[in-house]
Amino acid sequence: MDRLGLTEGELCQVLGTDPLTIVSGQADADPRLRILLDLTAEAAERVGDGMLRVWVRRGAPLEHLLAGDFAAFEDDLGDLAERGFTVRRRGGA
């Protein structure tokens, strides 16, 4: 799942499958993968795949994916579309 920068292990957890299914391409038929691709298509167009990967790693989105909470992840994407992605410097200023 290059778009989100998920590791093979993370993708297995999200899809509830094993690495062999991923490597063999059988996961391509999994409807959850299609849903993820559809959900993230607009965000990828707006902010780009690279920034989307950074955003996913910023806490809640990755936690929601790994928990299989696609509804919460969809809400996270809605927040991203509404507010954008803001990078803040640590330590103030």
Automatic annotation (TrEMBL):
It comes from the Bacteria. This is Uncharacterized protein.
